[in-house]
Amino acid sequence: MDLKKDLRKFLKTAKKPLIVVLGPTASGKTDLALKLAKMVKGEIISTDSRQIYRDMDISTDAILEKNQEKIPHHLLRITDPDQTFTLAEYSDLALKTIKAIYKKKKIPLLVGGTGLYISSIIEGYKVPKIAPDKKLREKLTKEAEKKGNEFLYKKLVELDPEAAKTIHPNNLRYVIRALEINMTGGQNKVDDKSKKSPFDLFIVGVEWPREKLYERINKRVDQQIKRGLVKEVETLLKKYDAKLPSMSSLGIKEIVPHVNGKKKLEECVETLKQNTRNYAKRQLTWFRRYDDINWLKPSEVKKI
């Protein structure tokens, strides 16, 4: 595809243009987004459910300010790891940010790999604003510990089959949140969706052969270790409870056993690599729900 030509054509006719840069972890979304933002005079809005947290730059691989190339970035590091931050809150903030970018006569770009965050914006989710219920969460967590994640997931399938379709059975945090919304508010997690996106969409991603993507993932984990991932996790554990939902983030939960002296670093690193590869698979599965993604080969990205 001729990305520049197609993008120019899109921007000429779009009334509410929204560029979406998505893809599995380590696919090169950040570099592609920077190139596109320069091309269209845009601003970037993160759609990463872990990069919203402060103090997790290495584990979440959040872009540092010095690498942002003077392009405004939004919804990065906006809350502390011990604070609850719901999908409804994210959706509200993202929509307000998009409106603010339009007012500046610039183009918003959604960039990230959290499928639920992306879908909440481009599919017009009406997300119930149900306050967290700590006691219920603790009860559900204990049920999962005793009976397994699959037990809770089956419960969600019975209560809210539509929400269950969008959540992986092992994503305990999302499963518990969906159950919480149903059990305390009597509503479905995604109560309603508009049939048509409220925006004119141009969705683009970087497509790698599976083996090459896995190589990139393994290499990035090695780089995270070199950058000080272990030290970052040590610092987090000194400040926050290891049982917090944020501390179950990829890149943190795998290193905790080493920091606590229960496993060797090499073993934890291999677990992190495997879990990251599995996460990439789940991301790709989610993205199949979008039938209009412009997938670019790495060689095409280099030419932009």
List the helices and strands and how they pair.
Elements (H helix, E strand, L loop, with lengths): L2 H11 L3 E6 L6 H12 L1 E5 L10 H4 L12 E2 L12 H17 L3 E5 L3 H8 L2 E2 L7 H14 L1 H11 L1 H5 L6 H14 L6 E2 L6 E7 L3 H18 L1 H11 L16 H4 L5 H23 L5 E4 L1 H5 L2
Helix pairs in contact: 4-5, 6-7, 6-9, 7-9, 10-13
Summarize the structure in words.
The protein is of the alpha/beta class and 304 residues long. Helices cover 52% and strands 11% of the residues. It contains 14 helices and 8 strands. It has helices at 3-13, 29-40, 57-60, 87-103, 115-122, 134-147, 149-159, 161-165, 172-185, 210-227, 229-239, 256-259, 265-287, 298-302, and strands spanning 17-22, 42-46, 73-74, 107-111, 125-126, 192-193, 200-206, 293-296. The strands form 2 sheets. It has a 6-stranded parallel β-sheet with strand order 3-2-4-1-7-8, sandwiched between helices. The protein starts with a helix and ends with a helix. The model has no long low-confidence stretch (mean pLDDT 91).
Short recap of the structure:
The protein is an alpha/beta fold and 304 residues long.
